Amino acid sequence: MTPAISAAGLTRRYRGQLALDHVSLDIEPGSITGLLGRNGAGKTTFMRIVAGHEFASAGRVTVLGASPVENETVLRQMVFVREDQSYPDLRVRQVVQAASWFYPNWSHDLADALLGEFNLPLNRKVKKLSRGMRSAVGNVIGLAARAEVTLFDEPYAGLDPVSRQLFYDRLLAEYAEHPRTVLLSTHLIDEAAGLFERVVVIDRGRIVLNTAADDLRGAATSVSGPAIAVAEFTAGRPVWDRRRIATQESAVVAGTLDETDRARAAALHLHLEPLTLQQVVVQVAGAPAASPQERTSA
Amino acid sequence: MAGLDEGAPLFVQIAGRLADEIADGGLAEGGQVPSTNELAAYYRINPATAAKGIAMLADDGLVEKRRGIGMFVAAGARARLLAERRKRFAERYVEPLVAEAGRLGIDTDGLVALIRESSNGQGGTTI
């Protein structure tokens, strides 16, 4: 099967700085992939090159088997919704209409339904919308386009939790009825975790993790309790992180735990908690991404 | 994700939830299992994940496919699940209970008395 998106040795340099460093990645058609990583990791650069908005310094990318650059056939089958998308000086209705002309699979019914659900004022100029409402316009276009390759780059900046939930629910329903290839970058990882079939983590321009989302659940466990017991339990195991307060210790153990491990932990009075996808990503994407307050209180 | 937060992979959890419903009789034998898309929408998960959960039950013979209609609970599924649970009851509940009681200095007679008390409190029948 031809991958929906295929990158080989993709490299992008900005004034000597490497935004993408030999990224090779195949994304299978008919899947939802989470593209995760810290700010400046290279997520947006990767999507911009895939969308044909930017050139690679080296390497190549194909979308649906062809280069996306100046390729109308490919571009009409691909929608790219980015954070803080700028729109021409038009009203909401006109922006959506223009999009409907471009995408051959456009669903007017879906667009109308979504415009209503997001409470978007059709006659207001897009420039006059709040940040969240502008994001909602992007979501409407990204979903209603029903494009074979759908790229969402932080698609809900400024959107309230109710609207984000609406976006997730609509994305899943649409994907179920009209399968397509979705690549979604987000910082709200735990919120979106259930959507992903695959997870790709980029750090400093390199892919540091590319795996089935299922494999990440239970891939690491937080073990906490009396420091002596934690030390005994974690001996000989890979430990990602260790924190201590008085006689209590909390350690993150990589690898899955079996029944014997669990029984042993129970006997040692240790508390086990699986890491969430977000916590796993924080561990693999280099330095902690937590805010200063969270780190000092830890 | 509607309350799915244990460590197991999501599809295993989906299979577990459905098995629980079959064992409790909520999903009757011969009854139709929710579709992949219904499960995906309800649990807010990827449809492929939901499909893997159902496939797991199908591999165990607990649900079966009727071509063109969907998945249905297999005959005898409930009895099989209940038998399995009875088998695992001791290791899952009794052994940890006895171990913790031992740590707290509760002897066997004390433990039996507590169980009897709790059983009466819940209006349970005497064993």
Secondary structure layout plus pairing:
The complex is a heterodimer of chains A (298) and B (127).
Chain A: E1 5-14, E2 17-27, E3 32-36, H1 43-50, E4 58-63, H2 72-75, E5 78-82, H3 92-102, H4 108-117, H5 131-144, E6 149-153, H6 161-177, E7 181-185, H7 189-192, E8 198-203, E9 206-212, H8 213-216, E10 220-226, H9 227-234, E11 239-245, E12 248-254, H10 259-267, E13 271-274, H11 277-284, H12 292-297
Parallel strand pairs in A: 3-7, 3-8, 5-6, 6-7
Antiparallel strand pairs in A: 1-2, 1-4, 8-9, 10-12, 10-13, 11-12
Helix pairs in contact in A: 3-5, 4-5
Chain B: H1 10-24, H2 36-43, H3 47-59, E1 63-66, E2 70-73, H4 77-103, H5 108-121
Antiparallel strand pairs in B: 1-2
Helix pairs in contact in B: 1-3, 1-4, 2-3
Molecular structure report:
The complex is a heterodimer of chains A (298) and B (127). By secondary structure, chain A is α/β, with parallel strands linked by helices. Chain A folds into two domains: 29-40 and 72-215, 3-Layer(aba) Sandwich (Rossmann fold), CATH 3.40.50.300; 219-297, Alpha-Beta Plaits (2-Layer Sandwich). Chain A has twelve helices and 13 strands. A six-stranded mixed sheet of chain A has the order 5-6-7-3-8-9, sandwiched between helices. In chain A, strands 11-12-10-13 form a four-stranded antiparallel sheet. In chain A, strands 2-1-4 form a three-stranded antiparallel sheet, covered by helices on one side. In chain A, helix 3 (92-102) runs parallel beside helix 5 (131-144) and helix 4 packs antiparallel against helix 5 (131-144). Chain B has 127 residues and is mainly alpha-helical. Chain B folds into two domains: 10-75, Arc Repressor Mutant, subunit A; 78-121. Chain B is built from five helices and two strands, in the order H-H-H-E-E-H-H. Chain B has helices spanning 10-24, 36-43, 47-59, 77-103, 108-121; strands at residues 63-66, 70-73. Chain B has a two-stranded antiparallel ribbon with strand order 1-2. The longest helix of chain B is centred in the C-terminal third of the chain and has 27 residues, at 77-103. Chain B is elongated. Chain B starts with 9 loop residues before the first helix and ends in a 6-residue tail after the last helix. The model of chain B has no long low-confidence stretch (mean pLDDT 87).
